[in-house]
Amino acid sequence: MSGHSRDRKGSLRIVRPAAGGDETFIEIREDGAIDAFNGHVDLGTGIGTALTQIVAEELDVGFARVTIVLGDTSRTPNQGATIASETIQITAIPLRKAAAQARHFLLARAAARLELPVEQLSVIDGLIRGNDNRSVSYGELIAGDIIRLELADDVTVKTVDSYRIVGQSQPRIDLPAKATGELVYVHDMRVPGMLHGRVIRPPYAGVDAGDFIGNSLIAVDESSIAHIPGIVAVVTIGDFVGVVAGREENAVKAAEQLKVSWKPTPPIPDLKDIETALRANPSTPRVLLNKGNVDAAIAGAAKPIKRTYIWPYHMHASIGPSCALADVQSNGVRVWSGTQNPHILRVDLSFLLGLPEEQIDLIRMEAAGCYGRNCADDVTADAVLLSRAVGRPVRVQLTREQEHAWEPKGSAQLMDVNGGLDADGGVAAYDFQTRYPSNGAPTLALILTGIISPVPQISEMGDRTAIPPYDYDNMRIVAHDMPPIVRAAWLRGVSALPNTFAHESYIDELAREAKVDPIEYRLRYLRDPRAVDLVKAVAERGNWTPRPEWKPPENENDIVRGRGFAYALYVHSKFPGYGAAWSAWIADVAVNKATGDVAVTRVVAGQDSGLMINPDGVRHQIHGNVIQSVSRTLKEEVTFDSTGVTSREWGGYPIITFPEIPSIDVLMLPRNDQPPLGVGESASVPSAAAIANAIFDATGVRFRELPFTPERIKAGLQQAGVATPSLAPPEPARVATLTRSWLPSVATVGVAACAAMAMVWPWRAAIPPIATPDPSTYSATTIARGAQLAALGDCAVCHTGPSGIVNAGGRALETPFGIVYATNITPDRDTGIGAWSYPAFERAMRHGIHRDGKHLYPAFPYNHFTKTSDADLQALYAYLMVQTTVRAESPETKLAFPFNLRPLMAGWNAMFLTSGAMVSDPAQSAEWNRGAYLVESLGHCGACHSPRNALGAEQTGKAHLAGGVAEGWEAPPLTALSQAPIPWSENELYNYLRTGTSRYHGVAAGPMGPVVQQLANVPDSDIRAMATYLASMNDGVNSASEHALATRLETLTLDRSTTRGIAGERIFDGACAVCHAVGGPELFGARPSLALNTNVHSATPDNLIQVILHGIDKPVTSDLGYMPAFKGSLNDRQVADLIAYTRRQFAPDRPAWGDVEAAVARLRKAQVQH
Amino acid sequence: MTATLRLTVNGKSHDISAASDTPLIYVLRNDLELNSPKFGCGLGECGACTVIMDGVAARSCVIPVGGCTGREIVTLEGLGSRERTDPVQHAFIEEQAAQCGYCLNGMIMTAKALLMRNAHPNETEILEALRYNLCRCGAHVEIIRAVMRAASPERVAP
Asked: Among 1.10.3470.10, 3.40.50.720, 3.20.20.140, 1.10.760.10, what is the CATH number of A1040-1169?
């Protein structure tokens, strides 16, 4: 079924016969309802509203009576892909004719019924009225009949002067539902029994050509996701891998955690150097125009000028990752998709499934704007494969990272222009060559499954607007057709945008050389009268002042301002193609000569769109095109490494934000007498050249490669000698990352120390087991006290393992000597401490000896617990003995030689264990002494926060609490050695320990999070006492000074003059600033201030790396909010860049960290091994 | 690991059976069929998933549902319906402030949260409040006008 072929009683249909049956354009029913069908789809541009207007106009009915149906393969005509601004210009034509034909038919029928000539009839909202005031409605004329009319060619449509609906601004039909959450996007589609799927893409991110494609998968380890509930299937076909689960979050987890091994991927060409890569890409020249004698003219030019312009890879960058729902059943396939080419995609799906097209019903739903070919088709095919595998409907959404990595990119492009000026300052010749490595990007599943060969097709799409709009006497235009280098397809403006960047930059360069105003110079060569009218109108609207000669503008501090002009007629579709709307820009820019920042402050965008169906719709399209193309010109550039795309989230691929939006003045020429033209792309086309020309006007420096980022502009201005000397201080001295205190050469030192250690009481006696004490022997007060002490001592933090059962042991604790497994400390007789008498417990706590006599490893901090008072130890024992009994064997700790010899610990104890109770300091307050006791005994802060010696013993003296490590995190110094930019005060220590956050320091994360969570059970007075003791080691300041210092430090971070444009800044802005920028928006959760954060100021970057890679998924309290993990979104280099930026911007007085990338790799790997 | 969690959404209480580390967005969309929060990035970068939680804008893709119990959650559906729009929704419709509309939920919810704490923001405050809500279609001009209209209906020319 390729068209809507059902004949319904009481209906009038206008159809076009097709191979698979009739294709319907208009259907009017006896109840007066009208459906209109168009094979194109609404990509979010409001085209549905404009088409509705056209139908309502030609039918003479109210706008609200028409329902537009777009794209469904079983209902709408096959009119190809929604591309190239063709909908209004081309596919709306049969629709308009069909509506007009229906109206003529109904008028004729009414004339017969009312026995009046047609001339004496008028139509208002579907009611035909005679001049004698009798009337009959469309519905009445159709009632009971089945009327099928074939679409005629020669239909008279209405004249423009009679329009009442077309040409008037009409609010969009879809917005009320969108603004209330009622519109069902493809993402929101649900059917009974639906499952959720996710795909796992190969490592060759965004590459779709090469013989490794489709055969790089080595293995999938399904056991790696066995712990995730509700997994229905793991599907692998060639390099296609997907998972299906009952709940979406489980599909997400499974896709993240599924272990998949891949063969190494061969490197792609270096796309940091686009010019070299594109010149090296094999190509076939195609001459589009050859006029005059180009070679002779160049040879004879008075001033030859040869230029190269470079366009980077861009993304469509849809805000919503693509999504689809498929239901593959034996009796037919239903697919809900956001595709821009439903009928073409159905052919692909038929190929993928080996089923006839007629068995596939593709329903097109609204989706996130795509601006060309994004992953909408790919995900539809993914959903089809997963649904086929499980026999149930499956919804699949891509991740942000997959959409970024795999969407077919808007291609890089290389434009060479040779030519120059003749003796009169005219254009001697224009020899233009363009390279556009792109095609239509085959649907990914077809390639990954090996159904089609991964040999890249070559398509001829580099020729859009390749011929400039200027009538140069000697002109040669060549498109070098070439295959893609990475996956690429059309993006708004296609190759016309880059081609126009070259045409309009070059003519500007010529005008400046000829010392003629750039607009005047263009007008000398522009023959098209509508183009001339538009250029003049825009110049007038923008108050263009002729600028025949470049003069340096006045500086306002470092800011220089300029304006530039560019014009284009967007030529689309197969060469020679059609012109869409004419467009011209005046762009005003402000350039900061010190930082390289370019702000586009104002754009005058003029357009001749012919007849505008919906003028407000046209205006919004112009706004959208201006904003998106300013974004592309100033900010956007896909990054790659040797395996593929590395821009995988909005920090790696930043787009324009609200504060960067220019003021936009839209000029729409009234051309109602001319046919309507596509407006979806035209206003983008002059963008880059207008901005480049404006930057030249401001600075006298010509930029020929996008994007115009601060670093590129700054470098260009410096090279030209016109940059303001940077105020940046010299690069801070780089220092090596501090070596952690207990890592070096432990093995060798250990062996050397063995002999000495072995001499001291290597064996201890077992203490006989006892009957587990009766819980009733302990008072509630004692047990409650014990619970507090257990919380203070964080027993549960280490003694709770992967099972999550409190104190049942099994947690792996990494030490430099190997992994030590924490034991079960519930009162289970066999696997826990149920058979331990108090003396056995006390011996373990004070001396590190197991009940059975063997030595415990000092990962158990008995060197602290030994200081605990008898009363507290007894309470703790009571509490532990009344816990719920859990039988759980802990894994056996097996350290490598010599550390596997537990008796050696006796020697260790002799050397490093100081037994005995705390001695109070009479010179200090009672509160201080209480704090000292809590910190140094059960609190065992030093276990993490003191450095350890080569044998794993805490260092003492000045090194006490001077900073250590815990589970791959730095435990910062608690003493005056603290790197915190604001010294810790008693109040802030209290706030931090009590709430997990301090305004002047940050939030507790990593291993410290659970510690603070445990402290929630400790009374306020004890928290205050610990704060008092710890504060006494610091030169804390009062709260007024803290506030003043914080304000000063935070204000400093608002100045980016020394960091503008350095790698990592963009990632910070896109990924981090939303929660961490000073003065940023109010959002749920804490806003940790990086200028004050200890980790940013530390001697090592470890904690910053940890928190960026792994986020904070278990904050101390949910009020603090959560931080996402970026390990799946940023690579090691990107994390390192981000950290380098963060350090320089937020801790400007600290030296750069050394070799951050290696540290990122190390900590990422450490996590994987867990 | 699956637990029953009590959530208050749009004034109604719901008992949800889900793992507590499930991002809130999936529970809202799949268990409560509230489609307005859209999955955009899963990293809190783009704002398409924004809801209002305890009176402030919250990015539901990075907040586990376990952290949402005992809180008041409001989604776009909770602001108003087509028949009965909230003033902010009304202003967005009047100004035609969307193209594809995928980001629209986040724009309206962020604007609503802004206006709840600052009824009359100036343009700079509006731009800063929306800085981290991304729109790819380029509907920014209309969105800014919509927030201005919602903030001060009397100041916007008809």
From this structure: 1.10.760.10
